[in-house]
Amino acid sequence: MIGPMCYNGIYHLFYQDNPKGAIWGNIVWAHSVSTDLINWKRLPNAIYPSKPFDQYGCWSGSATILPGNKPIILYTGIIDKNKTQVQNYAIPANLSDPFLQKWIKPDNNPLVVADHSINKTAFRDPTTAWLGRDDHWRISIGGRWGTMGVSYLYKSKDFMHWVKAKNPLHSRNGTGNWECLDFYPVSVSTKNGLDTSVMGSSVKHVLKVSLDVTRYEYYTLGTYSLEKDVYIPDEEMVDGWNGLRYDYGNFYASKSFFDPSKNRRILWGWANESDSKADCVKKGWAGIQLIPRTIVLDPTGKQLIQWPVVEVETLRGKKVKLSNKMLVTGKKIEIKGITAAQADVDVTFSFNSLDKAEPFDPRWDRYDAQNICSQKGSMVQGGLGPFGILTLASQNLEEYTPVFFRVFKAPNKHLVLMCSDASRSTLKDGTGAYRPSFAGFVDIDLTRKKLSLRSLIDHSVVESFGAGGKTCITSRVYPILAIYDNAHLYAFNNGIETIKIDSLKAWSMNRPEQMNQ
């Protein structure tokens, strides 16, 4: 992912692409546009290596809209074989072109060069800029010093001459290299999105980092100190590898942007392939952009809430509904009448009691939900759960990707585990493949004894949103039996406690169309 933005009613997606193959390398900034975030038109590549300041690669960055409604791109250029990284800019050649198809890289690049205190081979991905109350622009650039992840801060009066601040915006020992940073405000009192430059007592700030070491992301919520120009995570935040994640599955290099046309902040993530490199080469492509998500602060102030943009509902076709169906131990109900390989399913489960919840084993790592899910899979009987849906299932369940909940009783509270388990997703040879039992915990009050789940299913991807978007998990899977019309969708329960399907709505999903000129 590189730089999404909304400009004059047109959504622009700039993204890393290798025009010479299906594996990483030869990176350029590809460019697509849309009027609705669903139907897209591919344009010529926006930025590609051509100058001394980016001749070895054009890596990630961001887009910013400057005063006067002038978009500008900041990106990382690779200048030598040692992967020395500098920060460059590009501007549209013609602002009257609604699609901004041609971009110019002026010769006063690079704008930012690492000084002696910075690891110049780990210095990349400038953020969207924000304007301070002192009328100076600020950006943050990811990096590391030893094993410390660092979010460097730079300031500029004119956007052309940048000075490194005395202190980084934030840093954390033991986290390794930070890349694809995102820093933005969220409202504490409304669900409206905010421009990146909004600040003050009515907002919290979000700092998200992509971890080069682990290949997943985490974020914290906190306060941006205007006086000290530093970000301070809230006390209860886990600031490190065990921190909150946007998505506990195959989700990386995400980027958010403010959409002024609908007053919302949109988050966009990238999902790499989970099959082998040979499979990617064979099919000729790799990696997908996931469905864009709106992102708001949870009313508790302790986490973010994500939900698919409303525009995805324009793809809905045939609809089926179920309600008041009981799932006793071992029962499954097939959801018929829709295209199970390409579907949107939204279900609310309820139960009468928490008494049968299994005790949470004190030997388990509270932060290693994935390991717990690998032990307590969808077919391992529990007390309260596992219950959920079996997606992309073959008729005899030789293949299936379950998305489910399991409730545990800890000493002082109940813990809700949510899993999206790819370990049984395909009979295909697993050499070089990655099929984990992705999982995360859901921070939810179970007083009402209800849990909701929405999953977007699209052949090789299952995006799931638990409890209204409190916990999200994306899986990439490659069934060979459960494909097209041979894919099935079930609701199931393998716990002792009977589960009720309060309501279930499912739609066949149509294929997006390429946007017309």
Automatic annotation (TrEMBL):
Q: Which domain of life does the protein's organism represent? A: Eukaryota
The similarity comment for this entry is: Belongs to the glycosyl hydrolase 32 family.
Q: Name one GO biological process term.
A: carbohydrate metabolic process
Lineage of producing organism: Eukaryota, Viridiplantae, Streptophyta, Embryophyta, Tracheophyta
PANTHER family given in the database record: BETA-FRUCTOFURANOSIDASE, INSOLUBLE ISOENZYME CWINV1-RELATED
Tell me the keywords, alphabetical order. Glycosidase, Hydrolase
Instruction: Say if the entry is tagged with keyword Hydrolase.
Output: yes
Q: Share what the entry says about its subunit structure, partners included.
A: May be present in two forms, a 70 kDa monomer and a heterodimer of the 30 kDa and 38 kDa subunits. The ratio of the levels of the two forms within cells appears to be regulated developmentally.
Coiled-coil segments on the chain, per record: none
Which residue range or ranges hold the Glycosyl hydrolase family 32 C-terminal domain?
311-508
Q: Give a yes or no for keyword Hydrolase in this entry.
A: yes
Q: Name one GO molecular function term.
A: hydrolase activity, hydrolyzing O-glycosyl compounds
Q: What is this protein called?
A: Beta-fructofuranosidase
Q: Where is the Glycosyl hydrolase family 32 N-terminal domain?
A: 3-308
